[in-house]
Every structure is written in structure tokens, then in C-alpha cells.
Amino acid sequence: MLLDTITPQTGTTVGVAMPISVVFTNPVAAKARATVEKHMKVSASQPVAGAWHWMGDRRVDWRPKTYWPSGTKVRIDADMTGVSNGNGRYGVHGYTHTFTIGDDVRADVSVTGHTMKVTRNGKLVRTLSINAGSAQYPTWNGTMAVIDKQEKVHMTSCSVGISCDKGSPNYYDLTLPWDVHLTQSGTYVHYSTGDPNPGSGSARGSHGCVHLSMSDAKWFYRQVKQGDPVTITGSPRAKAPADNGYADFNLGWDQWLAGSAAGEQTTATL
């Protein structure tokens, strides 16, 4: 049993909603999960209560009970040497990742109000005009930590299961700028050539993404980092599933603990 990935990458600065996400190369049996959790020690520069939660049998995330305090330094020591996955495989390596929690940057999106309010360390920085998903393709509700961002992304309706028929009014094949990634299912905050002036006066709706004007999309892209929470309200759609990217905070604390084998813990001190 080996660790496939540990996120965030070591040495990075991330947002207050960023979980530690560990993906294994092989499935971990339920009977082995408490032992695996106990061999992944989370330390921080100040005490933080949190817990692991299994997103299936290969991925497990550690998140704090509430958002990380800004400025916290975090380390995960995953000593998998000799640890069984419960299916006849054993770990042969140890892994250490360190990262820092940066400024508390949050974006609160009102679908019905067509606005996004961006705050930094508790102070409102800017209110932006947005359009979200149409009635046919509503945007996910809930809190999604930024997965990553790219200056350009090639987006197609076929790749997300909307339409592969070029004659369909819902078909698209576009490369669009200033893309902030929210879900693995394809939700982004970005500029759209088909919706250049979003806001309450526009009847345009997206296929589930959040649209900003070109200047606002560029500004927002430069403000946010991996792990910053984007919270969307007012959509008729349910909250994004916790494992659809890093939507970990869409689970209440009791729900989160129900997916942990070892239960709540307080970080060790760095």
C-alpha cells in the first residue's frame, strides 16, 4: 500500500477551507482504517480540532472542525511503513508534507442576487456581478474550496455530459480565460464569451458555472488560491457532494465524524 497523492503540496500556502487529502494506490478495508488514520499525524503551530473522513476506500481527508486560523503552519507525517491496508498489502514508506494557511479569503455567491462578495480577513473587498446556472443546469449550492486555477481552460459540453451533438443549443467547445476550479464535475468561476456582462439585468444562465465579466474574472483569479472557500446560496440544486473536489465543509461535523474510524483529534504542536 502506497500513498498516491497528498494534497496540498508541500511548501504551499493555501486557504482556510483546505483539507489534507490523501489518496492511496490500493483500497483500504474498513477494519484497517483506524490504524491507518493513527499513522497519519497532523501537527500545527496552534491547537486545531479536526478529524479524518473516508471518501470511499482510497481517499481520506482531514479537515478542521471549523476553518483553519490564518497563519497556521501545518505538517502531516504519514508513516505507512508496515501498516496494512486490510487486504494483504503493507506500506513501505513514510511521507511528510508541510504547508501554511494564508489570508482568510472568502467568496459568497448569491444566485438570486446575482452577486459575489469577496472578503479578506473579515473585511469586504469587492462586490462583483455574476450569473450562475440556468433552470436547466443549476449551479451546486454549498461551500467548495478552490481546487486550482488556470489562466485558460478548454471547456466542452461533451466532456461534462451535457451534449455531444453540435446541433444542440447546449453544445459548446470553447477555451475561456481566468478559470477558478470548484468541483471535479466541472464547476468553475470564469469569464464567458457568451455572457460578457453578467448581473441582474442579464437573462443569461450558465451550464452550472459562475460567470464574471472579463475584468472581474481576472481580478478574482488574482485574489484567490487553492483552499479558499467559495460558498454558493440560492440555487435550486443540492449542495455539492463532499468528494466532488474539496467540498468537505458541506458535511456537518457529526456527519464528518461518522466517516472517521479514529474520531476527533487535536493537532500535535509543531
UniProtKB/TrEMBL annotation:
Domain L,D-TPase catalytic: 105-233
Pathway assigned to this chain's UniProt record: Cell wall biogenesis; peptidoglycan biosynthesis
Keywords, sorted A to Z: Acyltransferase, Cell shape, Cell wall biogenesis/degradation, Peptidoglycan synthesis, Transferase
Record-linked Pfam families: Big_10, YkuD
MF annotations from Gene Ontology: acyltransferase activity; peptidoglycan L,D-transpeptidase activity
Cited InterPro entries: Big_10, LD-transpeptidase, LD_TPept_cat_dom, Transpep_catalytic_dom
Source domain of life: Bacteria
Cellular component annotations (GO), alphabetically ordered: extracellular region
Gene3D superfamilies listed in its UniProt record: 2.60.40.3710, L,D-transpeptidase catalytic domain-like (2.40.440.10)
Gene Ontology annotations of biological process type: cell wall organization; peptidoglycan-protein cross-linking; regulation of cell shape
Location of the active site: H190, C209
Name of protein: L,D-TPase catalytic domain-containing protein
